[in-house]
Design a protein that fits this description.
With 243 residues, this protein is an all-alpha fold. The protein is 78% helix and 0% strand.
Length: 243
Amino acid sequence: MTAAVIGANATYLFLAFFPPILWLLFYLREDRHPEPKHLLLLTFIGGMGSALIAIVAECAFIGLIRGGSCQDGIISDANLPFIFFGIAFIEEYVKYFAVKALILRRPDFDEPVDGMIYMMTSALGFAALENALFAMPLFHQNFFTGFEITANRFLGANLLHALSSGIVGFFLARAWFHPHRHHFIALGVLIASLLHAGFNYLILVRETFSQSTFYLILLLSTMAVMVFIDFERLKRVQKPQVI
């Protein structure tokens, strides 16, 4: 019985982690000079840790705004747009902070495209743990429901995290080779947070707004094009040339 439970949980955990890892492998193909695997693993784990920090910070933020517990919900709150932006900002910043704390001062961070690679790795670590926390209870209730939610997150939330952090990574790369670096990083986090908040809002209203799916696809497609163009721009920059 115990072995069966352990096996089932291991399967659920694998299904939660597989989609972000699949996205990660896809994006790592864009790197002409692959990063050390131990640093990618460290960044992925750092992204997972940042998800835990985000949970605490978001609860504190919502409690501060509402004057109550974060478990009370935010659907009817008059400050809903501000709360959506605040949550998105927290998540985008903690993913960046993981890279800042673990990677930026290392000698292997030596070319502009590394900014996007490490940021997206952190983001997918974040998404993996978020998947586990979100989908594991659903798997226990109904396997097919859990699998459906995980598949939807692969094309939705997981992709969003990768793309929004890819945008931050582009600005991080610009910052790292520019004397006014903090302004670029702040701008990148701000843009990513706005796009992230827009995605969350469209998810919330999709039951009442019939065109929300179209706008979700449009938003993610636009972000994907931005990230693709950013990758190509950075790959043409030779280290340690200033961008």
